[in-house]
Amino acid sequence: MSMETKIVNGLLIIKLNMIQAIALAVITYYFGEFIRNKFPLMRRLSVPSPVIGGLIFASISSVLRMQGILGIEMDITLQTVLMTAFFSTIGMGASLLLIKKGGKPLVIFFSLAVIVAIAQNVIGIILAKAAGLHPVLGIIGGAVTLMGGLGTGGAFGPYFENLGVSGATTAAIACATFGMVAGSLMGGPFGEALIKKYKITVNAQNTESGIALSDNDEVKVSGTQLMETLGFILISMGFGVVLSSYLTALGMTLPSYIGAMMMAAVVRNLVDFSERFKINTDAVEVISDISLALYLTMAINGLKLWELANLAIPLMVILAGQIIFMALFAWGVVYFVMGRNYEAVQMSVGMIGFGLGAMPNALVNMAALSQKYGHAPQAYLLVSLVGAFLIDFVNALLITWMGAMFL
User: Fold this and answer.
1) What DSSP string describes 252-296?
2) How far apart are CA 252 and CA 48, in angstroms?
3) Which residues are registered as beta bridge partners of 6?
4) What is the CA radius of gyration of the chain?
5) 117 vs 147: CA distance, rounded Å
6) Residues of the chain with pLDDT under 50
7) Bridge-based pairing state of the strands 11-16 and 4-8
8) Which is it for the CA torsion 181, 114, 108, 89, positive or negative?
9) Greatest distance between any 2 Cα atoms in the chain
10) Are 383 and 205 in contact (CB under 8 A)?
């Protein structure tokens, strides 16, 4: 299949089909990985390879278009498929057996995360209105990209843009990237400050028991396990399309991946209570990593960065307000409500990580403290359960509901 070209208003446009678009995503991803390995600071801040490589490509393509030299358009069919697969893996993590282990502290911590998501949207809306922006851009600078991270930002940006919010996708990626950097920079120093201020007793004997987030850690999954797990995910995606269509027929406007995420949760729990099948969590993680990396890279490759010019300063004001709120909430609420001890410190640090960035940020922050002060098993359990999948279910519904108020 040859590459399609056309001339629009004197500008040469190259249209990449879906196979060429995903091939470009692979090249861009590994270029970002190369740059990330060259600059250790990017690794310490947990800046993902898709962001690095994608932003470089998007910057070059945007300059070429703005100079009237060349325009690049891409078929996003596979991007949508990969996005649905990624959120299906999120749903696949919603095990009732795991949730049961968390008990009452899990309910409390999850409730605090929901409060943060709502507050982020409210703060974003207020500051967006004050800056003369569309209120939905405030939601994008809120729970869409901060509590939701790059995955949710990459999904809801195009969703809101299709509903008429110009620049939503570009703003989403920019805010999510900022949040990941801020989440990594804030977490460790914040935890250190709490420990010193309140003279918290820590278990220094277990300094080697924290989670080590090495890029060299190997996950061993057989081809059979991978195929079986992929089968469950594809089945969830298939039935999820039916569920999404049914919800749409009922008048509920939701992102396309919601049905698949819900069905994946159902499948996971049916499998958990069966004796014949088993969900391999390592295989789920592998599929999640691959689908997220490619889907995000494709999304970032296609960014229209020129749309960010008029949004840059207002978005920075919104994000500054979000950082202040996150620090105050983690200190004044999470730390005190969750017990005012070392476990509570770790939960506060974890909340900052996934509340501004994503789960990797949360775990990096917590691991840094664990290596110095000791492990916090309850904090790791609660942060992982809430940040990895529980909050994504509620957050998607909150975003859709609050966004609908201004569309």
Assistant:
1) ----THHHHHHHHHHHHHHHHT-SS----HHHHHHHHHHHHHHHH
2) 33
3) 13
4) 21
5) 6
6) 205-216
7) antiparallel
8) negative
9) 69
10) no
